[in-house]
Amino acid sequence: MLDLAIIGGGPAGLTAGLYATRGGLKDVVMFEMGMPGGQITQSSEIENYPGVFREEPHLTGMELMEPWPKQCMHFGLKHEMAEVKQVKKEEDIFKIITPSQEYEAKSVIVCTGSTPKRAGFKGEDEFFGRGVSTCATCDGFFYKDKEVAVLGGGDTALEEALYLANICSKVYLIHRRDKFRAAPPTVERAENNPKIEFVLNATIKEAYGSAMGLDGVIIEQDGKEIDLKVPGLFVFVGHNVNNKVLKQDDGSFLCDVNDWGEVIVNLKMQTSVPGLFAAGDVRVDAAKQVVCAAGDGAVAGIGALNYVQEHFND
Hints:
The chain contains 7 helices and 17 strands. The chain has helices at residues 11-22, 61-65, 68-73, 136-139, 155-165, 184-191, 290-311; strands at residues 2-7, 28-31, 78-80, 86-90, 93-97, 102-110, 114-116, 132-133, 147-151, 170-174, 196-199, 202-210, 213-221, 224-228, 232-235, 239-241, 276-278. Helix 6 links the parallel strand 10 and strand 11 (196-199).
C-alpha cells in the first residue's frame, strides 16, 4: 500500500512529492502520463520565478522545470506513467484506479490543474505564446508601455485588464455583450480607468501576425470589421478544471467543490475528506502561478506526511 499517491506531475505535484518523501514517507508515487513539468513547460519566456532569471536568451518554461524531477525524486519519489481514471475512498483507504491496475493509498494529493478555455477565433492557437496569452501576471510585463487587448466579460477579465492598465499604455477590453458578468465594483473601476477602452458587442474574428509574433486582431462589431493593431491579446473566457479523477460512479464528487468544479480546500490544502488534499490550479482561488503551485504542493506534502503519521502509526 502506498503512503501517498500524488495525481499530477506539475510544480504542485513534484513539490508535494519532495516534501513528503524528504519528511519521511517511504512509498510515494506520482501519477503523470507524460514527462513531469506541467503546463509551464510550454511557456517560451519566464521572468517571474524568484531566484531564477536570465535576460538573453530568455529562460523557457522547459528550462525552468528541467531540474525539478531529479531533485524531487532524489529522496524516493517514484513516477508512475499511468493515467488515473478515478480516486475513491473505502473506509480509511483510497483506491487509485488506472486502466491497467488499482492501487491502494493511505493519502492522496490531487494536483491535476486546470486548462484555460480557448475562444475559438482564427489564429488563436497559431499565436498562443507569441502574443496571445491567458495570464496577465505572467506576460503583461512584456508589453510595458504598449497597447494590448483583453477578451472577456467576467471578473477575471476585468481584474486582469486593470492589472495590465498599470503596465501598458492602453487596454482594449473586448466583450461580446453590452453588459458584464463581473461584480459591479470591478466594472466601475474599469470604467473609471482612463487607460481602459471598452469595445462592446464585439467578437474577435482573427488574430494575425508573422514569425515574429502577433501584429493585431480583426474585430467584428455591429456588422463592421475593425483592425486593432496590438502586439498582445489576453484571453479570459474561463477555465476547465481538471477534476474528473474525483468524479464518483453516481456523478457526485469525492469531496466538496464549488460551482465551477474547483476543489474547496482550507489553508492546509485539506479537502472535506480526511487524507485527501488538493494543490495548485485545481483548487479554489488558485493564483495560477508556478511559485504558488509549488507552495501549495509543499503545504499539501507536509499535510499528507502528518496525516499518515497520525492515522497509520503501527
